[in-house]
Amino acid sequence: MNLRIADLSPDDQTAVYQAAELLVAGFREHWPESWPDMDSALEEVHMLLDPAHICRAAFDESGAVVGWIGGLPEYDGNVWELHPMVVRPDLQRRGIGRALVADLEARVLERGGLTLQLGTDDVDGMTTLADADLYTDLWDKIQNIRNLKGHPYEFYQKLGYTIIGVMPDANGRGKPDIYMAKRIG
Question: CB 3.0–4.6 Å: which of 99, 107, 131, 182 could bond 174 by disulfide?
Answer without folding.
Answer: 131
